[in-house]
Write a structure and sequence with these properties.
The protein folds into four domains: 172 residues, no CATH class; 102 residues, no CATH class; 100 residues, Immunoglobulin-like, CATH 2.60.40; 88 residues, Immunoglobulin-like (Sandwich), CATH 2.60.40. It has six helices and 30 strands. It has 494 residues and is mainly beta.
Length: 494
């Protein structure tokens, strides 16, 4: 049985409610989705600690009806049941057991693996705390969720909702012939007479159920009501007045038998309310819950003045471009035992302690797309220190140039362009509008490579000076520059 199949169940928003059969003033309501515990400022108590290539995820969640939801439900019930006084309505969660609470990692589609399973507090609000050590791959999925991407991190409650199912079995019918027969002793087994009367439809068994009962409960109720009917039939036979002077035995016409039994069983409905952790955050606020804790590094040697090529001067690590609008979460720099991290969105320059400048630095880039980190090394610093270019970070800048369209008098162009990676890059799909004074566009795609490592596939719809539409066919190229013209010509692999 599903919760919406409970007789009389109705919805108030996303909440299912149903009336308590034993008390008309009581209503049971089932919460919708698990929610985060929140701090004094209303922020979810979720933190992702990142150190070296490991991560620790801490989060607290619960499953309950909050006060505002209860107010809404009560107001709705007052309208739905005008005979009830608002103050007299009682709301509560139904009897239930929270068996497990699971933290699930996804691939951004429909595949999920259980990361860890915990027990809840066992009573409302069924609070649960997770403290999980993450591998690099798991860390990427959690980061994707905190960046607002769906289906990467989920919380699922496994719940057994307990229902009392009551069945009332009633047997009725005329048993005048059976009374006389049993009284004469021709067939003293009352139970057998009841079975025969039911089979011959002289007795009928009817059921009244609070909600659909199991076949086992129905069979048990039928057996008990027939046993009770046999006892009633025996009593009727003992009180039967035998005809006098050996007169012919005529069945009495008003020997009506009626018996009833009531049985109850517990039935379980399995519920699995599941929430996407990405829905807990708005406008990329999830990144504020990422705490970078660089690994301990050895104490730097005494710095010396002069050019970095002396090999003993502290080195600055910075970006050569603005990475604010890229998919990078953070960049981890390592040189020997020394570590430093450039954190989004500013990616402020960091410094490495004095060490042999001839030693390369290792770069590990974590992205918000849920994919794997990209790792590389840089052998020689520039005169300004270590300057990280897009190719060092697994990025490639794509340029769209529609200036030829503007020169040809076009009014506007709509370009649909996709990056299709050949390796571990992240597919990118976007539609760009060129018009007015904006006829070029640039952005970065995640290639996880020092080259494009894939193809660009694009098609354009151009509005010409006279308002007519020119549609360019779909074109595939292997370079990051797309140049549009009224008659598109480009290197195509198709």
């Amino acid at each position: 049985m599903l919760i919406n199949e409970i007789p009389g169940a109705f919805q108030v928003g996303e909440i299912y409610c149903y009336r308590d059969k034993s008390n008309a003033l009581n209503f049971f309501c089932v919460p919708n989705l698990p929610a985060p515990e929140r701090d004094a400022f209303g922020r979810p108590t979720l933190y992702l600690f990142i150190s070296d290539k490991q991560g620790i995820l801490q989060l607290s969640t619960h499953w309950e009806l909050d006060s505002e939801t209860l107010k809404t439900i009560k107001a709705t019930l007052t309208e739905r049941f005008p005979e009830l006084q608002h103050e007299s309505i009682n709301l509560s969660m139904p009897p239930m057991t929270v068996e497990d609470v699971q933290l699930l990692l996804g691939d951004g589609k429909n595949k999920f693996d259980t990361l860890v399973t915990n027990r809840s507090s066992g009573f409302p609000p069924f609070a649960t705390v997770f403290n999980v050590h993450l591998t690099q791959e798991q860390l990427s999925s959690v980061q994707a969720a905190l960046n607002g991407r769906e289906r990467f991190l989920m919380v699922r409650y496994i719940i057994s909702l307990l229902l009392d199912i009551t069945i009332e079995a009633t047997i009725t019918g005329n048993v005048s012939a059976d009374v006389a027969t049993l009284h004469m002793g021709d067939q003293p087994n009352a139970a057998l007479l009841i079975e025969q009367a039911v089979a011959q439809q002289r007795l009928a068994i009817t059921h009244t159920e609070t909600m659909p009962a199991s076949d086992t409960l129905k069979a048990k109720a039928d057996a008990q009501v027939k046993a009770k009917a046999a006892a009633v039939l025996s009593e009727m036979a003992r009180n039967y007045q035998r005809p006098q002077n050996n007169a012919t035995i005529n069945p009495i016409s008003d020997a009506t038998l009626s018996a009833m039994v009531t049985l109850t069983e517990n039935q379980t409905i399995r519920l699995e309310p599941t929430t996407d952790v990405s829905s807990w955050f708005t406008a990329n606020s999830g990144t504020g819950h990422i705490i970078i804790t660089p690994a301990e590094r050895s104490a730097p040697a005494t710095l010396t003045k002069g050019n970095h090529t002396s090999g003993h001067e502290e080195q600055i690590v910075s970006l050569s471009f603005d990475a604010k609008d890229t998919s990078i979460n953070f960049i981890q720099i390592g040189q020997g035992t020394n570590q430093a991290i450039l954190q989004s969105p500013e990616f402020k320059p960091v410094s490495l302690p004095a060490i042999d400048a001839a030693m390369p630095i290792n770069v590990s880039v974590s992205y918000s797309d849920g994919g794997a980190a990209y790792e590389t090394s840089i052998a020689v610093p520039s005169p300004e220190g270590w300057r990280l270019d897009p190719v060092h970070l697994g990025l490639m800048q794509v340029s769209l140039d529609g200036s030829a369209l503007k020169e040809a008098g076009a009014k506007a162009a709509r370009v649909h362009i996709r990056y299709l990676p050949a390796g571990n890059g992240t597919e990118d799909d976007r539609t760009i509008y060129l018009q007015h004074n904006e006829w070029t566009s640039q952005w970065y795609v995640v290639t996880r490579s020092n080259e494009l490592n894939g193809v660009l596939e694009y098609e354009a719809k151009i509005t010409t000076a006279d308002g007519s539409i020119v549609k360019n066919p779909r074109i595939t190229i292997e370079e990051p520059l797309v140049k549009l013209s009224m008659k598109t010509e480009s290197k195509s692999t198709q």
